[in-house]
User: What shape does this take?
Amino acid sequence: MQDPSPNTTDVGPTEARSSLRDVDVERLRADTPSLGRLVHLDHAGSSPSPEPVVDAVIEHLRLEAEVGGYRAAAEQNDRIERVYDSIARLVGSRTDEIAFAESATRAWDLAFGAIPLERGDTVLTARAEYVSNMLAMLRARDLVGIKVEVLPDDADGQVDLDALARRLARGGVALVALPHVPSQSGLVNPVAEAGALIRAAGVPYLLDACQSIGQLPVDVDEIGCDLICATGRKFLRAPRGTGFLYVRDSMLDRLRPPVLDTRSADWTGPEHYSMASGARRFELFERSYATFLGLGTAVDYALGIGLDAIAARNRSLASSMRSHLDAIDGVSVHDPGVERCAIVTFTVDGRSPEEVKAALWGDGIVTSVSPTELSRIDLAGRGLDAVVRASLHYVTTDDEVDRLVGAVSRL
Assistant: This one.
């Protein structure tokens, strides 16, 4: 058994069970009939969309079938514009600081590619960084000649703020890119504390909120970040192929969008163009407006529940799951950090994570596996080849937590 971070904000099982009444779980589960057929514990991978989201997508697809895509978009322009308003409310930004992206990776690449990095510049990141982001940074290292430095973790397994402060003081840092919540553990990095240090140093701050948007409150001013990338398909419960990029207005003139088209710029003369105002200069003309409206509906759905209530319930459920798993002989929980969230990772002695995942699937329980290939620095540094990832959400029930724990104990 292992609990690598005893000084956490997790609560005990009794408090966890009593605090879950703050969310009307049965009403919300009724909006997602598929939850009655499987125990879905892979919300960090792709969360089943509630019926209002599905209806929004299908409604627009039917309209496109009747009048064509261009006219359908024109007729629904007001609804489309309100999606930007909803996302802005979600992260505490202005509407013109939001751009649509097809995924968090696409948003991250757009943001990273727009920063004018030069040979010798240093980009700082964390040990828990995700593979896609690291690949982009390493590619820029090879093509541009930047330096990529990985900040150490502190004793609790989160990004070391003292080390960050010391490195910023030395100078030469052109960007700090941090994951809010990594893909491979329940860690919640101290991103607001990091943001205060980064802003004081005058360095751009790119936050990967892929795993935090929809399960935790995210406020751009409280965090102090300049850029945020996020996806729709995970904890927001939106359709696949949706996401967004937040760009702080004060950053716009410092950025160079890597691609332009008729959505992001105007061709003002044979040899001249002007970029669109605000963050939409990062958008391209073609997209699925049906799934974009689904994204907006999913954001409104989460806002209607309340991100504080969602976060409190998720922490309680995850705390209960960790406590019960940790009590099973031969099971080790692997979530570092002072604050932890709805992602629970563990291993079972004598069983590979893939074997555990398959066995759970046989019991109708959907989980996933995070292999070292997705986070080589973090997982390999902790001596782990892979971990089972059970990611719950506000629609998860006590019984479903018990089913997971029971199935693991039988292994």
